[in-house]
Amino acid sequence: MEERYSKAETLALRRKHIGPSCKVFFAKDPLKIVRAQGQYMFDEKGEKYLDCINNVAHVGHSHPYVIKAATKQMELLNTNSRFLHDNLVQYAQRLTATLPEKLSVCYFVNSGSEANDLALRLARQYHGHQDVITLENAYHGHVTSLIDISPYKFNQLGKDSKKEFVHVAPSPDIYRGKYREDHSDPASAYAEEVKKIIEETQKNGRKIAAFIAESMQSCGGQVIPPVGYFQKVAEYVRAVGGVFIADEVQVGFGRVGKHFWAFQLQGEDFVPDIVTMGKPIGNGHPMSCVVTTREIAESFGASGLEYFNTFGGNPVSCAIGLAVLDVIENEDLQGNATRVGNYLLELLAEQKEKHPLVGDIRGVGLFIGVDLVKDQQKRTPATAEALHLIYKLKEHQILLSADGPHRNILKFKPPMCFTMEDAKHVVEIIDALLTEMEEATGMKTENNTSTNAQCKRKTTDGSSQPEGANDSIGHMNGAACRQENGLYSNKRSVPSKRIRT
Question: Span 135-140, mean pLDDT?
């Protein structure tokens, strides 16, 4: 494919015409991507990169079935939802069929940010309350209303940036958080923190409209809440007239494998009041959705304000959404997420046994985090090392990113067509690079197989997969899993700005 501009010209024009706060991956040597297929992306030279981070191209880049559905509908009609069209109602019917019965009313919008902004409006209209409880390190979108409830963003603005109506609860992180894996009941302990916030706000005459959380935190560091946490939080929040918003923008549509939605990892007895979705919903096409109960929807309508979204729910978007659901089902991508995700977790767990730089492996399906540390006992974040590893992987034509509050968590969230061969290739390269890094700095690399074997917990079926809600939810950590190691001293500076992926 002949390019209009050279890479240098493209970069120069971007610097001239695109806002400086719009960052690129690999700023020292950004990639110019000209096409993509499946789990691969190609640069202007035809070099192929394995994409381990693109949860937007959910069923694979440039999927022919999705493209055909979009093209066919574009040739016929694209208009707004004020006209009747079968695509809209068919898609709403198909989408709600994947959810618990009471979540039956859809509002179609165009991005995850729009979806979460609308969810806040629904919550605040429901009982007229205004305050919102969010989690440490949370990110819910780029519009003003969501920056206000996203500590991942507003903490960068200074100590006085948190608004009075926003309350921040501890992230339910059992590796780095307040209550860890050695706590007898971390779910209840973290939920009690939310209860304390509610009690304090009531003393101050304030009223909670909503608790919002990603079903699994992504930017917050690939955090998987302990089972039972959401149920208890929902109980406390609903008791004071608030609602529970489950943000599935990053992790929905079968990414966790056995379940279609990540909130279902908490168990069948948990149902949120509002669910937001985006990113994977259109496989790269800009669309998103808010699904809620009939009661909340009717309350929103009672305000007297019509809700209209010019592009939300248009026939083309709905055709694409239907096609994505078809591919997930027809190609058994949920099953693939379970099989490949389990295999990837196993391979990464072996790396934890080999490498002192690896502190924790956690994940479910094709949503996995690798927590890099300088010291396994102290769990000191290895921020510079993670950045170095990301750039070295790029040299091997593997695209991975690092995030979390310390930017030391390697994030795996690839297209759902990711294969076992892909997983094996990536981990082999990571293994070689970690070995190289540890040898260069004198870190010890003794295996500690006997203690790490104790980290695997039994599931209900008696297998040696990590503990979870009948899924393979890996969390390879714990006091028994720690080993002594040398310190990795690296004086390199790390950029202070984050790029959300």
Answer: 96
Mean pLDDT of 95-101: 98
Strands (DSSP E) contained in 378-425 are 380-381, 398-399, 401-403, 409-412
| Cβ atoms < 10 Å from Cβ of 193 | 17
Cβ atoms 327, 122 nearer than 8 A: no
Burial of residue 473 (number of CB atoms within 10 Å: 0-12, 13-18, 19+): buried
Please provide the distance, in angstroms rounded to a whole number, between the alpha carbons at the two ends of the chain: 27
Phi and psi at residue 494, in whole multiples of 5°? -120, 135
pLDDT class for 442, splitting at 50, 70, 90?
confident
Q: Which of 384, 340, 381 is nearest to 360 (CA)?
A: 381
What does the pLDDT look like over 325-338, one tens digit per residue? Answer: 999 999 999 999 99
Distance CA 160, CA 496 (A): 19
Q: What are residue 123's phi and psi, to 5 degrees?
A: -65, -40
Indicate if the pLDDT at residue 311 is higher than 60: yes
Largest CA distance in the chain: 68
User: How far is C-alpha 267 from the geometric centre of its chain's CA atoms?
Assistant: 19
Q: What is the pLDDT of residue 474?
A: 63
Q: What average pLDDT is seen over the chain?
A: 90
- Classified as helix, coil or strand, 381 is strand
3-state SS, residue 121: helix
Q: Is residue 167 packed enough to be buried (19+ CB in 10 Å), middle (13-18) or exposed (0-12)?
A: buried
Structure tokens at 349: 């767990």
The Cα angle at residue 142 between residues 140 and 143, in degrees rounded to 5: 105
Which residue type is seen at 241?
G
Residue with tokens 């949920």: 334
User: pTM of the entire structure?
Assistant: 0.89
Residues 266/227, Cβ–Cβ less than 8 Å: yes
**Cα 277 from chain centroid (whole Å):** 11
Q: Number of C-alpha atoms within 13 angstroms, CB side, residue 120?
A: 24
Residues 6+ apart with CB under 8 A from 482: 376, 377, 451
In tens, the pLDDT along 458-500 reads 333 333 333 333 344 666 654 333 333 322 333 333 333 444 4
pLDDT of residue 501: 46
